Amino acid sequence: MKYIQSDKNPQVKQWKKLKTRKERDKSGMFLVEGFHLVEEALTRKDDVEEIILSEKTEMPPGLDYGSVPVTVVTDEISRQLADTETTQGIFAVCRQSSESPESGQTYLLIDSVQDPGNLGTMIRTADAAGIDAVIIGKGSVDIYNPKVLRSAQGSHFHLPVLNGDLEEWVDRLNGEKIPVYGTALENGSVFTEVEKSESFALLVGNEGSGVTKELLTKTNQNLYIPIYGKSESLNVAVAAGILLYYLKTAK
């Protein structure tokens, strides 16, 4: 194990840069924090470049990190790297996935969702529902934002989560005869009217303005969830969960 004491160390400076989207995009790397996320990252060891451990943190005895290098740092450096107020003192430096689904049958397409908690929750829900891939369109929060990673609870390491051009993806899915369902009140159908399909793509949009009109014109059908109480609308992550599970089990 290597031991770093100075926060002026070039390696420490590089890790700290990974807290910015600019550096994550430039380097193709990102940082996860906490025992659970590090453990999940290690399910794909080839994508883990390094584990960082605070001198005040013990390596969990059951953590299978194989030949992944471990660097021990001071508690002060650990706190500088942390995105949480009370850090567990363990991090992993990971490579962004370039995995692309070649023969997926079910997709979640996300258009301009800006809240990290919402995005992470939808990635986690898609994982739980057995969706093959999540495609994030422009205008959305960074896939590897620390709050997105925490909300997704490791699902980034379970299925492809990709940035992509949603218009191109909708065209591609239409070409593959995979029905694409948008979410919209205008010219929409109640979601329970959808016929069963082994394959589908669900397209959800921005918390305030929904899916862009250009994308909605390309869908096979647009769906909405009825509101029976006095609330004006459902949270986008909650709506995505209802629709994904219904589409997976529709008869």
Automatic annotation (TrEMBL):
GO process annotations (BP): methylation; RNA processing
Keyword Methyltransferase in record? yes
Q: Which GO terms describe its molecular function?
A: RNA binding; RNA methyltransferase activity
Species assigned in the record: Mesobacillus subterraneus
Give any Gene Ontology cellular component: cytoplasm
Q: What is this protein called?
A: RNA methyltransferase
Reply yes or no: does the keyword S-adenosyl-L-methionine apply.
no
**A Pfam family it matches:** SpoU_methylase
Q: Which residues form the RNA 2-O ribose methyltransferase substrate binding domain?
A: 31-100
User: What lineage does UniProt assign to this protein's organism?
Assistant: Bacteria, Bacillati, Bacillota, Bacilli, Bacillales
